[in-house]
Amino acid sequence: MAEKKSSEPIKKSIDPVVLDMLDKAQDEGVSTAFSRAEETKPCPIGHEGNCCKICFMGPCRLVGKTTVGICGATKETVAARNLIRMCAAGAAAHSDHGRDMAHTLMAAATGEAPDYRIKDERKLKAVAQYLSVPEGEKSKEELAIDVAKAALGEFGRQEGELLYVQRAPAKRQEIWSKLGITPRGVDREVVETLHRTHIGNDQDAEHILDHGLRNALADGWGGSMLSTDVSDILFGTPSPVAAGSNFGTLREDEVNVVIHGHEPTLSELIVAAASDPEILEYAKSKGAKGINLTGVCCTANEILMRQGVPLLGNFLAQELAILTGAIDAMVVDIQCIMQGIVKVAENYHTKIISTSPKAKITGALHIEFNEHEAMSIAKTILRTAIDNYPNRGAVNIPDVQDRLVAGFSHEYISYMLGGSLRESFRPLNDAIMSGRIRGAAGVVGCNNPRVTHDDPHVYIVKELIKNDVIVVTTGCNAIACAKQGLLTPEVMEQCGPGLKEICHTIGIPPVLHMGSCVDNTRILTVLAQCATEGGLGEDISDLPAAGFAPEWMSEKAISIGMYFVASGVTTWMGIGSPVAGSEEVTRIITEGWKEKVGAAFYFEPDHKKAVEEALAHIDAKRKALKLEEYSPTRYARSATYLPAEFAPGKHGAYSIK
Fold this sequence. Notes:
It is a single chain. The protein is of the alpha/beta class and 657 residues long. The longest helix has 36 residues, at 75-110. The protein starts with 15 loop residues before the first helix and ends in a 17-residue tail after the last helix.
């Protein structure tokens, strides 16, 4: 569907802190993603998938009377190639992260990375079973070595199928097998995508897109899922933690270090180093009272849910945070790092410190990280930030901070529903079957300055919980929700009556923070367990569930959306469609995929319409399961009666002081 045209200026954000910082940027002549989005309009040809640049006979722009490229490639072929190349890049990014985590696990188990240890032995044993690694009488280090070897083998696997696909419901596995899209090896599917889309190769849109699904599954049920599992083994499986969010988490009298990116290997060590007495004493010697850590993007989510480090902001906040003048160092690794932060930092004292051997930024200080000297490098980074503290000029920290509860891993959700003796998703299934909960939705993904920052994220989540749909969230959507107070028990007052009753009964917020964008695989696991629990069909596609990426912008988002669709979850992407120029490709990924895999991939820029369509979709799934028709008033009385002493936030593990 083509993007709607409007002559009205887009409001830049619903976050007042962001708006204040944008005014400051304008007054000081500082360029940001927001101002650049106004100055740089998207190419209308490439934006809709009608530009082919995979060889140097072009680029070929298929517009007007030009309907095929120089090689004869049609709009359908070009659009399909462009889409699955985006998927391949996104899958490569997340899966390469998973590979690095497996290498870190190996180094930790062999003693080559002495600053890391195995924190969750139970998760280690569970992953060993998933990877068909016998436990025997092995020590946890010996078992971890074998798990790491098996995990690394999944990336280079040449024959057979990825072992993790066995975690999907049996019916879903049958669908993949029948279609020939069960992933074989993570790297193999990414490489084959690039091969198929080379000039003169695969030239049938449907055939190209089928492999796109296979590539995406290699990410969701392969590299990304392995990344989440190995991170839990090394750093602990998350459980609920209270913290704060937004720019008010910065401190005027402390060294402010912002951790930004996607890998927890360094950030976990920075958190540990920040409490080292020697480092704290060094900070005091420079006039600071201490060290304050905050995070941006998915590294923020990683250290939030395991260490309680507060959230500073999501993707579009990274440049604006520097304008406070209070950030002594922004430490970045991989993915979603804007090159523009270096230019912004030139106006202030902030040091941008890149750390990954895969990602340098011109003009940034590079302190390369490796697992073998992790703590030493973490301390070097902190000392660099401390040395920069006396160089501060004027500081402008907005006095805005929102509360949140995060860290709902799928293991914890299962535990909280059934307790340690009978962990189960049965209570959730029962609540959906009875109609107290209408359905479930995953709302995830990026920010995009082409729309009002955070507005689609927050609107969709609020509308869903108002309509008794429980929401799980990751990535930048989770941070948007945090900044609007949607990750607290108090927000259940905005719920529909049935969902409110369930949230009161269990003691949970209606919006569950499940982690970083790579942790979308936790959502897959929840869906698979709900499907196999019984009562809601036999497959993920039977569930009354939907997916959203309201402000998507990255290739990773395409891969995530496609692996959810391939897993049976109809998904709505916001902003606009990268294949709008081809009606046939649009038909294939909607109606065609609905027939093949039981789910459709929609690109709908109108987030209000997307919610309406998703609610209708959820109701249709309920009807197909022969469940009672959802009624918003059926449980109104039971949900409205609540003694004052049991009001949200008064008691329980999730109240925040």
